[in-house]
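Milestone 3.1: sequence recovery, worked example.
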């Protein structure tokens, strides 16, 4: 059912071989689905390797954006800023983990350098 909705929403841009059903174990959504969902909420997805993404990351990563959405080895995770601090929202952690800005910067660069 979700795949049909995704195809209707994305038209020919839906790549079914790379997309996973929302009900699939792990909830591995395609980037196209996440991009549309975030755009509807007023957010823009900028790939880290895109020139705009590179420009933002050259600035202070803790102040360049309000969140990082990372796909790594078939797993999505988020790093999110709040009024208080940054949070590592990786579902593989036992609970959300607060991050100081220096730790966030290190985590962002580690994720960028990881080839997986």
């Amino acid at each position: 059912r979700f795949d049909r909705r995704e195809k209707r929403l994305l038209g020919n841009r839906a790549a079914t071989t790379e997309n996973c059903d929302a009900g699939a174990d792990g909830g591995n959504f395609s980037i196209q689905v996440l991009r549309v969902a975030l755009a509807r909420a007023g957010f823009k997805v900028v790939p880290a390797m895109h020139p705009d993404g590179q420009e933002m990351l050259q600035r202070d990563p803790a102040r360049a954006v309000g969140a990082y959405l990372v796909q790594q080895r078939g797993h999505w995770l988020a790093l999110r800023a709040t009024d208080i601090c940054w949070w590592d929202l990786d579902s593989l952690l036992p609970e959300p983990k607060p991050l100081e800005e220096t730790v966030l910067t290190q985590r962002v660069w580690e994720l960028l350098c990881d080839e997986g």
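Residues 101-113 form the longest helix (13 residues). Confidence is low (pLDDT under 50) at residues 14-25.
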